[in-house]
Amino acid sequence: MQIRIERLTKTYANQRGINQIDLTLPEGGLTAIVGPSGCGKTTLLRTLAGLIKPDSGAIRFGGKDVTYAPPQHRGATMVFQNYALWPHMSVFDNIAYGLKLRRTPAAEIELRVTDVLRRVEIDPADVKKRHPQQYSGGQQQRIALARALVVQPHLLLMDEPLSNLDAKVRQRLRVEIRNIQQSFGITALYVTHDQEEALSMADYVVLMNEGRIEQAGTPKEVYYQPSSYFTAHFLGDSHTLHVRRGAEMKRLVVRSCDMTIGSRAEQLPPGSARDYPLAESVEGGWQLTGEVTNHLFIGSSYRHMVRIGSQTFFADADEAYEPGVYRLHLPEERAYWFEPEGQGADTGGRMISGVTA
Amino acid sequence: MNAETAAVQPAGSGMMTGARWRRLLLRMILMAGALFLIMGPLLSLLIWSFAEKWYWPSPWPLEWGTSYWSKVFEGKMMDALISSFLIATAVTVICLIISIPLSYMLARYRIPGRTILLLLFLLPQAFPQLPVFSNAMVLMYRWDLVGTWTGVILIHLVGSVVFCIWTMVSVFQSIPTSVEEASTMLGASKLRSFFTITLPLAVPGVIASSLLVFLYSLDEFTGSLLIGAPFKTTLPVFMYNAAMGYEMQIASVTAILLMLPGIILLLLMQKFMKSEYLSAFGRV
Known about the structure:
The complex is a heterodimer of chains A (357) and B (284). Chain A is an alpha+beta fold and 357 residues long. Chain A is built from eight helices and 19 strands. Chain A has two domains: 228 residues, P-loop containing nucleotide triphosphate hydrolases (Rossmann fold); 100 residues, CATH 2.40.50.140. Helix content of chain A is 24%, strand content 33%. In chain A, helix 2 crosses helix 3 and helix 3 packs across helix 4. Chain B has 284 residues and is mainly alpha-helical. At the A-B interface, strand 6, helix 2 and helix 4 of A face helix 8 and helix 9 of B.
């Protein structure tokens, strides 16, 4: 079912609300909302769930206006960060709860619970005897997912479902949640603060900041075509450099893996100790001159600490470069330029010491 | 390093045996002392309850027997025992009916003046019991409740609702809201969600606090004496009367009978009381 959100607003005293959100969740797709803490992503999710009443705006499930409908009448279900399973019930009863409320016949409940358990890869054999707390964290989240899916909801909401799990389980469950969501063909909204999770799982990524949508699009679009400084800086392992492009002062966002270290230079060009060193235009991109101060082995590659003027950033390379002055290359399409002024919303200034535009 | 490993060595090495015996002996003496301090008065109660004749300066009763036990079980004591248990049951039930919804709301909703409300409940405990109860008695005279079971139950509720609410608030606070949200999202109404999810999860806490209330009511004396006596007699009041009449044996038997449910219920409660309830206790 297609979900439409129109000019949805909810204000709080502490500014963690949402402001004029317009968004459409495509039918059968997984939309990920990602943003820093306090950006309003959880408020948006809980408003969709019906757990928070918005101040204004509208929510439509299909053609139906559900803006002020109570959560139990929306047909949306939720997967929580802390699983929210019921320890006093067996796993079977946990999953059958929603079906019993819908007065499903016992025989059908049995069939559907067994089916959904197979699909989330939990052994259906002893679920009537075992309780949720007898399963591992990853399994508990699968059970919670089964409980949310078995009632065939119009919308599946997931509130940071993998945050409590360790890295390996998280990696695996990412893929599995994605597969399960696709096999059910269910419209899903996934809230996370982990940009990698959002990019890898979603059909559609929505980047939120300070209660507004900063950018929305496919994972590739938001990653490769950031429309704002915030998006460019938030996604990927990004750094901000204040540089001169010709006569203009610019903010340049660059990702660690995009900048390549080239040939050695004899010395730093004049004026490069300033806060706005020059970015020279070369064939196919840009060239900066910087000083490699040291490097770290990070497993897949070497991470070099590079100083350009008074600014420091990291550049990854397959081989280790000795300390010294190098020419650095940045392909044209990987250079994201932004005006230095209007720093109201940005957090990018943290890499620079004592720079004011 | 060597000294450490030696200390960890089990009893096998002969060198340690002397020190070990001395330590064991010391521990036994200390334990016996503690046992005497705790059990001494209780033991004297037990002896008194079986003493038929016991005059000074004899260190032991001159005659042993169970005649006082049978006397107690034949006489008014049984009435007092039964009414005490009935009252404690009634107080517990009413107290739960009042405090479960109230403490749930206090735990879940941002009620304005929440802290003040909770402190208000505590107020009767902040003053000495006697003035609070005598004032209550004045009120109850006006409503003709003095000397009635209703009056005794009401005076017990004054004290018990307080700590019932205080413990239950922390019980409900220890249950995450997301478990309720999960059930409403699946289609359950608020009421259904409360009865199928929240209340079952709160059961250990409910049992623990109802045991506390039951015991409080069973042992409550001041209020029962002021409101109930002489027309309605609970077990503690009965015991008091017996002791005042220098019937040491009757008083001892009653005291033992009063102690038993306390011991049994406290043992039960240990099973249900979770440490998180205690740590959350009084957190407003």
